[in-house]
Amino acid sequence: MQAGDVKLGSIFFDNHRYEIPMFQRPYVWSEERNWQPLWEDIAAAADSVVADMVKDEWPDEPPTYFLGAIVVKATPNHPQRLGGSILVDGQQRLTTLQIMLAAARSVAVEVGADSAAGRFDEWVENSEKAVHDKWPDDKYKLWPLPQDRPQYLWAVRKPDDDSPCPDHGHRISEARTWFEDAIREWAMRDGDPSDRLDALHSALETRIALVRITLEKTDNAQVIFEALNHRGVELSQSDLVKNLLFRLVEDQGERHLAESLLVDHWLPLDGRRWRAETVTGRIKRSLLDQVVAYWLTVRRGEVVSVERLFDEFKLWLLEAGFNAGELIREIRTYADLYYELVSNPPDEPTASLVDLVIATKTNTVWPLILGIYGDDRVSPAQRGKAARALSSYLTRRMLCGLTSKDYNRIFVTALNAASERAAQDGLAGDAVEEHLARLAGETRNWPDDGELVAAIFGSNFYSLNRARQRVFFAGIENHLRDDKAEDANPIRARWEYLNIEHVMPQKWQQHWPIAGTEGAGPDGEAVTKREQAVNMVGNLTLTNGRLNAQMRNEAWPVKKPALQQKSTMLITTASILAPPPGVDGFEAGEWPTRWDEDRIAKRSAHLTHLALQVWPRPDIVPAVEEDDEDDLLDDFEEDGQE
What we know:
This protein has helices spanning about 10, 30-55, 90-110, 115-125, 150-155, 170-185, 195-205, 220-230, 235-250, 260-265, 270-275, 285-300, 310-320, 325-345, 350-360, 365-375, 380-400, 405-425, 430-435, 450-455, 465-480, 525-535, 555-565, 570-575, 595-615, 630-640; strands at about 1-5, 15-20, 65-75, 85-90, 140-145, 210-215, 275-280, 285, 500, 540-545. Helices cover about 50% and strands about 10% of the residues.
């Protein structure tokens, strides 16, 4: 390895081609973090040249501005091609500089600075005489990744090329526009624009430097890349996974497949959808980071955290010696499966489970879901059985207020049990159900009917967070929307516009007086009973949007029409505006005439009964509880690290 600082002029002056290899990520630089600071350094260097021009004094050792480092490795020479290098690191920086030089060339042509335009041109394109007819793309100093290529070729186009921009929202397109505006504003600031653009070129040639690290054939580019980037702030865990895989594609003698693997399989994973940040706990991660961690958990049968994804992936990959191309295809398959389950689940049990997971952010169950749905040995019926079991297990524990801290290990052991059963007879859904039902102990058990009834009927149900409340009411509502219902389309708990409303308001004192207690103190028995009833499950319902704030506290004769107009939910119309099935002691027309503690209690019992039907537990006795103190301590330590 050779390292040294070089002026920018020597980087781009010769006929040379820098190639961004397939293992690199696409262009991601932005204005605030990258373009602006880069241009400020370059403009400062150009201003110093302008000052020297005005004074006509030239320092023996002018100030040098360093723009960071690049790592290059020479490519084998083809007799008809220009000499070239692959950019092991620094591709974002060199891409930006090429875009800036092309923008400067256009501004120079615009203001008639012919000399500057010609000099910038020599730094953007290689000499036409040196480019062979068989390799026309060699005319570009830098050759980008396929996903960036259309935007890049537009950004470095000739000044007389008026081709339309292929994607105005792409970072490269934005960079070209930004630099052109910045350079034009700087050139027009003081004095002759032609002179200032000559000064800009001179500054770039003699006062801007980079550290260039040139690798020898024996140097391990992957190790050096990781040393430079693994602890940095820019690269994500999936970026490092991708880098390693595409490096191995070349090392395993399949370089000819690299571009097709990138374009056909990985390219969609570099899109905005997968790079969108999601928040788990207090940590921001890209969606792709999470899904690759789910996939690796499935593959290894062990919990893989996103924070340690690359380290664990690298160790597993190099020990097992897998084919990198096959793993790239497999990651894409699992990413597609994840997206399909979220956007277009195959059946209602799956849709309900996915909705529950997304609404409550219970992401630790995803490896188990992907493992079952990605296993061709598991039938749709068995997948549905697993989905129903998981929905019941998660919902019952959620409603009972039980911890989720051991879920990562629980679901991985369930995944392994399902995989073993799938290999035997395909009954992976049975295996999931049996595994969860046999778990014992408060941190792992599947609550029985008695525990669930006590949790729903005897608690302050409104104290649950909104996501859990919506999961409960959406599950009941969808259960009521059978094939006989006028509207059988299911609702989803993750729909933020769905709102939890109190029927009897929390501020009941003005419009909901307690009969026979006028003047009673605030601590009376009737008042205590009223306060308890207000937050019971039977007094809550789901509406399509919020009721008017004033309407929410109105008396029942005023509020009832508002509910009739606002809610199309069966959970409201069939148990608040009409008596629930099986309720004794009320004539059909008498039930909706008022809303009181007695009706709240009866509706609470009705909803609890429905919950037992929606989220049933199999009649399987849990195993004898073992001492899991050590496991819990391990979980606590893992949670603390995360």
